[in-house]
Amino acid sequence: MNRMQYFFLSLIFVLLFTSTESVLTTYKKSLLNELQSTEAAQLSAKAVALQSVINRNFNLMVSLEAYVSAGYLKDKSDQEIQAYIEALYAGSQASAFNVVIAPHGVMKFVYPLKGNEDIMNWDLLQDPRENVQKQVNQALQTKKMTTDGPFMLLQGVQGLVARKALFQDGVFWGFVSVAINMDKLLIEAGIEDDADEGPRMAIRSPGMPAFYGENRMFFQSPLISVIDLQDTKWELAATPPDSAVKTINIQMLIIRFSILLVLFLGLFFIIYIIRQRDRLSEAVNERTQELQIANEDLTAANEELIAGQQELQESTKRMQESEQMLSYMAYHDVLTGIHNRAHFQMMLKEQITYNQVRGTSLVVLFFDLDNFKMVNDSHGHHMGDYMLQKVVQRIQQSHLVFHTFARFGGDEFAILLENCSSQQEIQAFCEQLIAVLKPPCILANRSFFINASIGIVQYPYGGETWEALLKNADIAMYMAKKESGSSYSFFNQHMEMLSISKLEMENHLRQSMDRNELEIVYQPQVDCMKGAITGVEALLRWNHTTKGYISPSDFIPVAEEIGLIDVIGEWVLRGACSQMKAWHRQTTEPLRISVNISVKQLHDERFVDKVIAILEETGLEARYLEMEITENVAMQDEQMGVLNRLRQLGISISVDDFGTHYSSLSYLKRFPVTKIKLDQSFVRGVQTDDKDRAMIKAIISVANAFGLQMIAEGVETEEQADFLVANGCHHIQGYYFYKPMKPAQLQAILNEELHDKLAFLGANSVHNYDI
């Protein structure tokens, strides 16, 4: 039929049956719309029911994930975990085909067991099914719940599977999954039950063939409802039942047949063809759009793959460069460019093995730079680094012959020698090394002389393993450092015994406080003019469990060296302040407590805050506390701020052993000192040494000139006390009056009369000592 014929046919039909067809058409449309509305409501109800059943079963994933992520699997037996899954399944009224916890991808915990025997201990990461591997990889990449299905499960049924990968501390832990039997799912959602009397239905994933119902329904302008499955969707399509449509069509055919059956059928046929053509065109357009979108997606994916390939190539190149750099850094020192400790140890191991086979000689020299710390402290670490670089340059540019030269860290270096069997050869090498380092190093327009202390150990006399050789070389270097600068020392067994003894003391000293081996004794300080005790010095004692009392001169330097002096000093300060506060409650005249502190304690930025806290804790007023600074380390200007803050609190500052170490008149000028403590080495020479008597008078004169208090320690005889008092030093501390004693003993003598000890004051005769 051409256009003209179609036009005339339509025109005749319109002219003859315009009014009647208008009514019939309107009536038919109303019937179809009503049917469409009814079927749309039923389809929506089915979709909601299906979505609800899926969500109810998939909600088990949340509980399983929380159970695993919260660490409840730890310390749980398999039976307890299986019981939890069973309780969770029953409590949620789920109808899932199974719920699974798969640590490391292995389905170890499955419920219910019946019907799921085939998947017990199944390794998902090794599953040969392509769709399962795709879902597993997607779960690992997205770290979200993924769904797959329906597909044929290992149990032999069609199922829908939800799965999620779990990670703990960023590391893959395993999977949790829920599977639903598709047949039971459709029955529970009420879809299959109504298949005969309800609307015709079909279900598919977008763009995929229908897995339930007839796929052609999606090409017949069906009613569509969407089911959301987390990372995918399902489309439910439905068309009105054939019986309902047929009834309407019969009604319309009967009416139209009464008007004009032939025309009606002809027109209906023509209209039907036109409509089919339109539908086909619409389907083609939709499919064309889908293909265009898919093509765009593929193009974008291809571009991403190309970009990813380029990035991978660049990453591979950077990784290779990093590996080369790490390989270099693993065996080289960054600052100096020479080999490091790791390389030296490796070479030493190899040479020991070689020596055992060939019988060649092997010598390890271990040395560091004397007073290197002074360079760092006075001029900064950058100057210290420069000095280290100059040392390496000198050794490398010298004519010294060695096997390996390495920096161990800080200012420590090691040299490995071979074929150097006699001590004369080794000594000659060490002297040459010292000579190489001897010329001054210019830093900040100042000349610094580099001195090295060298420890020497020979294989196998000094050790048969590389660990023993390095340890004993370190011991020998320590002994060389104690003797003098720019020296060397061969290792011997006596050194090892001394080192072990020192190490034992360090280890035992670390445990001394926990073992209650440390104790505080107190020595009174007497004002001879008042004839009374006016102060007490707190002294630390160590009562070793096996060796008895150890001299403070032996263990205090060790405590400073191992960094324990801060803890011990704080313990002594707290105990002394607490004891003095207790005595204040029992005496009418408050005494002053003197506590020794190490200069190293002043390096602690929180030292003043600790002192304040101890005073507040014990209740002792600051004016009754005196701190004695021991001169074993020269004080720097950095400590001035700490001392000033202590003086602002009201604490007195005393210089102990004045005149024997680093102290000078500049101390009295620069630092907030309130008292000078005369060292006992001067006091001992009062009766025999003119210079000591002159020194004492000079120090007393200096103290008076600076307005400082003066106290002499170590006074043991009446003659010594007489001379000191006669020359203006009225405060005495020593065995002449009292020895150090425990708190209970000192409590008993606080109010003791001192007339007998001070009888020399009433004699009105002072011993005459020529000076």
Automatic annotation (TrEMBL):
Domain CHASE: 103-193
Lineage, broadest ranks: Bacteria, Bacillati, Bacillota, Bacilli, Bacillales
Pfam families, per database record: EAL, GGDEF
Domain GGDEF: 360-493
The protein's name in its UniProt record: EAL domain-containing protein
Transmembrane segments: 253-274
Domain EAL, first and last residues per copy: 502-754
InterPro entries per UniProt: Biofilm_reg_signaling (IPR052155), CHASE_dom (IPR006189), EAL_dom (IPR001633), EAL_sf (IPR035919), GGDEF_dom (IPR000160), Nucleotide_cyclase (IPR029787), Rev_trsase/Diguanyl_cyclase (IPR043128)
Keyword Membrane on entry: yes
Keywords linked to the UniProt accession: Coiled coil, Membrane, Transmembrane, Transmembrane helix
Coiled-coil boundaries: 277-318
PANTHER family per UniProt: BIOFILM ARCHITECTURE MAINTENANCE PROTEIN MBAA, DIGUANYLATE CYCLASE DGCP
UniProt key word Transmembrane: yes
PROSITE patterns: CHASE (PS50839), EAL (PS50883), GGDEF (PS50887)
